[in-house]
Amino acid sequence: MTQSPPSGPNASDREQLGHEVEQARHELGRTVEALAAKADVKARAADRAAELKEQVGTRVSELSDDVRAAAHVVQEKLPAPPAPVRDMAGRGARSAREHSTLLFAAAGAAVAGWLLLRRRDRRRS
């Protein structure tokens, strides 16, 4: 028993109703997608982190430019150091470069000692 397609005013009502149902399904699908995107906390956090990283990078670049400009202004206003001071500073920098491993080891030992003393002081309190 097959039914013949409806004709008359009911046919257009059914087509209209079918169209409205299809439109409602489409809207529901978009709503579900939007809710799923909001519920995906990990993806939202990653997006926010990327956005903040970009903002920080831009701000760091701007501040670096400002610092360079300020350093240039200060350098122009300061008198040049005397030759003996420049020579001594140059020798110190060369010595630091040549003995960088030793300097890093000494700095590491100093930090480790400071941490041990701090830990001991906390235990006493």
TrEMBL record:
Keyword DNA damage: no
Residue intervals passing through the bilayer: 100-117
UniProt xrefs under InterPro entries: DUF3618 (IPR022062)
Listed Basic and acidic residues bias regions: 12-21
Residue ranges, annotated region (Disordered): 1-21
Pfam families listed in its UniProt record: DUF3618
Protein name: DUF3618 domain-containing protein
Taxonomic source organism: Streptomyces xanthochromogenes
